[in-house]
Each structure stands twice: as C-alpha cells, then as structure tokens.
Design brief:
Radius of gyration: 20 Å
Order of helices and strands: HHHHHHHH
Number of strands: 0
Length: 182
C-alpha cells in the first residue's frame, strides 16, 4: 500500500507539472518547503533511531517492565508516554511497544484503553510544530519558558493525555466487562 500511495502521489505531481504549468523550482524554493523538509528528515531520523534502539534493547526493556506491568497492567501507559517523549512519534511507539506489551501478557482491552498515552512528544518542546507555533505567535503568549519543562504546551498536553487515557480505560472496561463486546 505504501508503494501504491507513493506512485499515485508522484503521478499526480507529474500531471500537475505537465498540465497545470506548476513550477517545481518555485515550490521547493519557498520557506514552507524547506522547513517542512527539515522536519521530515528530523522525524525520519528519530524514528530510525528509535527502531534501532528498541530492536537492540527489547529483551532489557521487557525484563525491566515485566514485574511492574504484571502487577499493574495500566502502567504500560506510563511506558508508552515516556517512550513517546523520547522518539517523538505516536506511530513508532505503537509499532515498537505494542508487541512488547502483548508479549508481557497485557489484555487487549487495557492496551486499547491506554492508547492515548502514546501522545507524549509535546512534553519536550523540540517538535517542529511546537517551535513553529512559538515563532508564529505574535502575541507572545505561546512561549518556551526559562526551563525546558515549563512551556505553553505542558499543562494542556498533560491534561489531555491523562483525561483521554482515563476515559479510554473506562470505556474499554465497560465494553469488555459490562457489555462483553470484546
């Protein structure tokens, strides 16, 4: 499917250049394109690094989490969150940590409920959209504070992740135990 999407996108771009007289040099010369490509390379590098890291250290991570997660399965949400903080990608967290969570014997309804906890890349303000937001705000209210972990995204992000994770685990519990749906 990835190859099909890429082929369609390249084909569409070629048709736009041919029939719409698009100017590729003007498109790639703009600030939006250049900043976007920096973000793509940065995110790709982080995802590659995280995949390499988890592929090499999965046995150690599994051993470290086993006792805690078997006693309190919901604590996998904390692991999901902190891994997301490190690798800046919700998808990479799911791909790297979900197989580990299944191998630890965590029930699917719990994993589904705590899935909002994979959104943690707001915690350290190094994501391109966070930095761009600070730069675009002319009012000065969106700031990265004097210290690394006191910025405009911290409290809204934490409230969102905690609330969504609690709601998710509650809804999953109701569906699993009360309604017996899965």
């Amino acid at each position: 499917m990835n190859l099909v999407i890429q082929i369609i996108m390249i084909g569409a771009a070629a048709l736009m250049v041919i029939f719409c007289k698009a100017k590729p040099k003007a498109a790639v010369g703009g600030a939006v394109w250049q900043n976007g490509m920096v973000a793509v390379v940065a995110i790709y590098g982080i995802a590659w690094m995280s995949d390499t890291y988890f592929a090499n250290y999965q046995p150690e991570i599994q051993a470290m989490l086993t006792d805690l997660v078997k006693a309190y399965p919901w604590t996998i949400a904390i692991a999901f969150f902190f891994v997301s903080v490190l690798i800046n990608s919700q998808g990479a967290v799911v791909v790297s940590m979900l197989p580990l969570a299944y191998s630890l014997g965590i029930d699917g309804w719990i994993l589904l409920g705590v899935m909002p906890s994979v959104y943690g890349y707001f915690f350290i303000p190094n994501y391109p959209s966070d930095i761009a937001t600070v730069n675009f705000d002319r009012s000065g209210t969106t700031v990265i504070g004097k210290y690394l972990l006191n910025h405009s995204f911290m409290m809204p992000g934490l409230i969102h992740v905690v609330t969504a994770s609690l709601a998710g685990i509650g809804i999953s519990y109701i569906y699993h135990f009360v309604l017996g749906m899965y």
